[in-house]
Specification:
With 342 residues, the chain is of the alpha/beta class. It has one domain. It is built from 14 helices and 7 strands. The strands form 2 sheets. Strands 1-3-2-4-5 form a 5-stranded mixed sheet. A two-stranded antiparallel sheet has the order 6-7. The longest helix has 20 residues.
């Protein structure tokens, strides 16, 4: 499997740098890569430039392990480009895609997931999320979800940003969508026995409302129709924000949800009509999902608002999640580098 040489990429795996004992989690992560300069995020030498290809591999096998997900984000965060982005505003999936995923995969015809797995992984968890989410909250939500349900980090996750080939010049996004990747992933899952490590996970963060995104509400409804287990994964900030909210605030009008690509929005609305007969049925599905989510998180409804249940609630378990996340990303980055570099 080919990798870039030093003339083809500006930042390199640091063979001599080992994170010092007692170093901060951010320094532990950045210790595995030498820093970049400016907003150009130089490609890691350990990341392959060849893979099996999104055109040749069935969509249900465009997955990456949770370890690879956290490790890849650790590599992004180790660049000075990421630090610049962080100073401007929160870093969301749009920026991860623009500044890291696209330039690091362009010209390969392979998504991040397929560059990391020469033997493609069959998806076990499908991740539904809003691209405008805060990336740290997204990662934290997934980390807390895995810890809560004791899910193995090797579990293969289907994450559209990293599963689909984003540059689009070798195989376009529309060509990939024409393969019905979401439907095929859900169809494969519906044929499997379910446990907590299989099904759909819907990411909730305080920075972006997942129920305002048309793809997300459609995916939740489609999973429900197909009998695929769907659960919520929430950042600590999102969990705190739910306290004392009313039951009525959980209602969603899916007809108001939007998609950033007009062609996608038109296509999804046609699917909503054919699958659900319109928005009414989907609205009820989302309502039921959100009520179940609150119970799952350890909340009860009293005095017109939701309140955490003492000692059984997920509410109190995320207070040190930020530090835990940085430690996890540093460890996963190290595992990722070692797995790809002979």
């Amino acid at each position: 499997m080919k990798r870039l040489d030093k003339k083809q990429a500006r930042f390199t795996l640091s063979d001599e740098v080992t994170p010092k004992a007692g170093a901060s989690p951010r320094k532990k992560a950045s210790g595995f890569l030498s820093p970049s300069i400016g907003l150009e995020a130089e490609r890691p030498l350990w990341l392959h430039v060849e893979g099996p290809g999104n055109r040749l591999v069935p969509p249900e096998r465009w997955a990456m392990s949770a370890t690879q997900f956290h490790g890849f984000l650790g590599a992004c965060k180790a660049t000075s480009a990421y630090e610049v982005l962080l100073q401007e505003a929160k870093v969301d999936m749009y920026k991860i895609c623009k500044y890291f995923v696209k330039p690091w995969t362009r010209g390969t015809g392979n998504s991040v997931a397929l560059l990391l797995n020469s033997q493609p992984l069959a998806a076990e968890l499908m991740i539904s999320h809003a691209w405008a989410e805060d990336i740290d909250e997204c990662s934290e939500a997934l980390m807390l979800h895995f810890a809560r349900y004791k899910i193995m980090e090797a579990t293969a996750c289907w994450f559209c940003v990293f599963s689909m080939y984003q540059p689009g010049e070798i195989i376009t996004i529309q060509e990939q969508l024409a393969l019905d990747p979401f439907g095929r992933v859900l169809s494969t899952m519906s044929q499997s026995a379910f446990d907590d490590a299989r099904g759909m996970v819907v990411i909730h963060t305080s920075a972006s409302e997942v129920y305002e995104r048309l793809w997300c509400v459609f995916e939740i409804g489609k999973a429900t129709l197909d009998g695929v287990q769907a659960k919520a994964a929430c950042s600590f900030a999102y969990i705190v924000a739910q306290s004392s909210r009313s039951k009525e605030s959980l209602q969603v009008l899916t007809e108001h949800a939007r998609c950033s690509v007009p062609e996608d929005e038109e296509r999804i609305r046609e699917l909503m009509m054919s699958e659900f007969g319109g928005a009414e049925m989907l609205n009820q599905m989302i309502w039921d999902f959100r009520l179940a989510m609150m119970r799952q998180m350890g909340y009860e409804l009293r005095d017109g608002g939701w309140h955490a249940i003492p000692n059984t609630s997920f509410y109190r378990k995320g207070k040190n999640a930020s530090a835990d996340l940085l430690e996890l990303q540093a460890a996963c980055l190290q595992k990722l580098v070692l797995s790809l570099d002979p």
